[in-house]
Amino acid sequence: MKIADRYLLAEMLWPFFGGLLAFIVMVTGHMLFQAVEVMVEHRVALREVLRYLLYQVPTAAVLALPVSTLLAVGLGTNRLAADGELLAMRAAGISRFRLVLPGLYLGLLATGLSMALYHSIVPWAEGQGDVLIREIAFSRRALLVRPGQFVNAGRGWVFLVDRTDSDSGILKHLRVFHHNQPDGFPVLFVAQAGRLEDSTIRFGRTMFYAVTPNDEPTTGDASAGFVNLAEVSASLSPKSSKLQAMSFSQLLAEADRIQEQGISGYRQYLVEFDKRMALAFACLIFALLAGPIVGAFGHTQSLVGLLATLLIVFVYYVLMLWLQMLAEAALLPTFGVWLLNVLVALIALGLLWRQR
After folding, report:
1. What is the pTM of this model?
2. Are residues 174 and 203 in contact, defined by beta-carbon separation less than 8 angstroms?
């Protein structure tokens, strides 16, 4: 690496790490703001709140890496251009394309860091956060059963309640669905009323709907029933099964397993894999785009360039989410999320060519 490369790269490192830290604080702060009302209402301990925030840091980091890369390369290039240092380098015979290399080095560094986080740290943190939320829910009955919302208690138990009385624990119009029966056939219990007593849901006269081994629907009633949530909680797996808690290799393995069994749903694993890869390589593409942005807005318009950076990243994430939804709905191939990266890269190369 030449002296000029090291000098340019050093100019970008401080904005990179500063921007990364700032955006991580912003994202985790937004997560805390969304959850603070529930946490205060149900008196969640500060230690558990801090643990939850700590588990959100890796996810916030991978979301912040592309924007901090774009911001760092843009601000670093803008400062050098404003002081006439880039002009001096051009006069010394360094081409504009050669000046782009330090930013690409930073983009490669951010891409590698993002892939490492996505492969191991993020899945681990997401899994731990999921387990923590379930522990908090089982320790606070008001959080466990929420009116009008499906609550997955684990081990095949899913609850839906229309209304609750937090003081008496009475549940109105209770539906309990269990799809992990020993015989492999699901059953639905419907009761007009029930009661949540500590860690047990008790209900009176109950209608049940099930499927027999001959695939014939059957129904009946029972005088009473109960579900011991403490036993369900104790038997829960210490690992999370959601997509965000899987590594790259686990996503591909699960997609292959589901596809071999002829079960629908394998696309979401492949789309999640491609989305993570696309977001990681967005760091490199944004590093390529930063120079043309500075050239387009001038060397003294750092505020305008900063606002343009934030707007570009916002639009990028919105379009990425849209492409992900289209890919999961089979309206695009599973690698369709890469289309946005290709488009941004072509725009960056076109702007570089025009500014040569």
Report:
1. 0.70
2. yes
